[in-house]
Amino acid sequence: MTVLVTGATGFVGSRLVPALLQDGHDVRVLVRDRTAYDGPDAVEVVEGDVLHVGQFEEAFADVTTAYYLIHSMKAGADFEARDRQAARNVARAASEAGLSQLVYLGGLGEEGDELSDHLQSRREVEEILAGGTYELVTLRAAIIVGDGSAGFEMVRQLIRRLPVMTTPRWVRNECQPIAVSDVITYLREARSLPPGTYEIGGPDVLTYAEMLRRTARVSGKRTPIIVPLPLLTPQLSSYWVGLVTNVDWRVARPLIDGLANPVIVQDDRITEYIDIELTPFDVAVERALAEHRTTDTAGRRTDEQVK
Ligand SMILES: NC(=O)c1ccc[n+]([C@@H]2O[C@H](COP(=O)([O-])OP(=O)(O)OC[C@H]3O[C@@H](n4cnc5c(N)ncnc54)[C@H](OP(=O)(O)O)[C@@H]3O)[C@@H](O)[C@H]2O)c1
User: Fold this and answer.
1) Which of 142, 172, 238, 262 is most buried, with most CB under 10 Å away?
2) How far does the centroid of ligand 1 lie from the alpha carbon of residue 306, in Å?
3) How far is the CA of 149 from the centre of ligand 1 (A)?
């Protein structure tokens, strides 16, 4: 039975594909540019852009489970409109193809809270995908810790560059980061879950300030002095992140907006179905940093080259 992975070039998708192959599945990926995809040879590659109706639907033919790991944050200010359209197109194409199950990885954030545009958009995508005829399994996660995660990259570069940080006061809000390896385990196992929404998080609930301090400690850097400023708006913060890191401001802005929302697991129903030993935050950070050093040594551009 074929399993389809959309977003296969992304941070999560590129890790999920080899894991699914290891589980013995036939894996098909949907990518926008076939020539830029350097995944495993055993994968069937279909080229298509989900925003272009008529150009991607064949990817859903004869598929039992598909993973929805697409988002458009890198596309800039109109990411909500793109993500809305992408979800509509996929819900329609997957339903018409008779897909049995769709697994979507979305964002954590309390219902009823004033969610940031980014989190609202992730929630809207969930609602649109729920309109299809397949069974939908949604996993909601906060920041995922791993090399290449935009959120974690901001943390890594900030503590590397700034001994003193002025931050929005939301830096005192709590979040529940999760190791990318644990996310991949949940996604692999998600195929056996009854349809519904499940929240996933790591074993540590931390404020954003604690996350910065603990990442600094694990990296062997000086603990940053964090000064929350009530007047530092998200807009200013994202310009500031853009100045001191090479994280694209279009990606930084929605992520920083999201700091205003506490993102912790309220409903741990998933533990009734999937029992995994969660990776402690410090271990996840150690692994992410080790992987970052390896990929940099292998020739990827480094922070120093960018600045
Ligand atoms: N990273 C985190 O910390 C985190 C935390 C919580 C939840 N999540 C969720 O996890 C999911 C995956 O996130 P990620 O961090 O892996 O994202 P990512 O690295 O930015 O990858 C996004 C993927 O979407 C693809 N894509 C974008 N627009 C597309 C289109 N029009 N047609 C086809 N493919 C398109 C991109 O392909 P191209 O290579 O062609 O651009 C890329 O493969 C998202 O739903 C996100 O909300 C992530």
Assistant:
1) 142
2) 23
3) 10
